[in-house]
Design a protein that fits this description.
- With 216 residues, the chain is α/β, with parallel strands linked by helices.
- 52% of the residues lie in helices and 19% in strands.
- Strands 1-2-3-4-5-6-7-8 form an eight-stranded parallel beta barrel, surrounded by eight helices.
- Helix 6 packs parallel to helix 8 and helix 8 runs parallel beside helix 9.
- Bound molecules: erythose-4-phosphate (E4P).
- Erythose-4-phosphate binds next to strand 6 and helix 7.
Length: 216
């Protein structure tokens, strides 16, 4: 399972990318809105893409197909490798089909069921983003939706890549990998939490202390 950073914060993205295991970044309007209001969004997104060098999903904010396609053109003029992130609404699926027919990668977002993911895949989505945390927030077991999706993908041999999104905890990340998601897009904080183990820290402290007693 590949790991993406779910963030629009350049410092977080730079640090995550510097560790060498990040394959991409997903942004959304809410993540961008958390950044300094004076930020030039186009420059920020180009900077994010140059920092990671892999997948970069940029979300459209239009709710009609023509508007989405215009925005896609604009984003692609910033960098041609962009993946266009499109909400799962009927107008969005039309846009996904049009972009897919031009071999432009798309990431269909705001998916909460395996059926939605299946439909997005049939519309030509390159990536389907199934949200975990937001399902758990309303008392619905997100793992069941993800397991259903992965099972359907195996049974049908579908090509779209499954992104587990809305990841809130290291346990989510573990469950996504076990279920067979191709990618998890993970907030920086959860990436750092997933790396932390007290025995790793204590073990390193002991090695460094003992290293002062030996001659190299
Ligand atoms: C990813 O593509 C989504 O934008 C993101 O994971 C949403 O996460 P949230 O539910 O924590 O806002």
């Amino acid at each position: 399972m590949q790991i993406y950073v779910d963030s629009a914060n350049i410092k977080e993205i730079q640090h995550a990318a510097s560790m060498g295991f990040i394959s991409g970044v997903t942004t959304n309007p809410s993540l961008l809105a958390k950044e300094d209001p004076s930020t030039d969004i186009r420059e920020l997104i180009k900077n994010i893409h140059n920092t990671v060098g892999g997948h970069t999903s940029v979300e459209v904010i239009s709710t009609d197909t023509d508007g989405m396609l215009r925005e896609a053109d604009e984003i692609l003029s910033w960098f041609p490798e962009a993946t266009i992130k499109i909400p799962f609404i009927p107008a969005g699926l039309t846009a996904v089909r049009r972009l897919s027919d031009q071999n432009i990668p798309t990431n269909v977002t705001l998916l909460f069921t395996a059926n939605q993911a299946l439909i997005a895949s049939n519309a030509g989505a390159t990536y389907v983003s199934l949200f975990m945390g937001r399902l758990d927030d309303i008392g619905t077991d997100s793992l069941i939706a993800l397991q259903d999706t992965c099972e359907i993908w195996d049974a049908q041999g579908l090509e779209s890549m499954i992104i587990a999104a809305s990841i809130r905890t290291p346990i989510h990340m573990l469950e996504c990998a076990k279920a067979g998601a191709h990618i998890a897009t993970v907030p920086y904080k959860v990436i750092m939490q997933s790396m932390k183990h007290p025995l790793t820290d204590a073990g390193l402290d002991a090695f460094l202390k003992d290293a002062t007693k030996i001659k190299m």
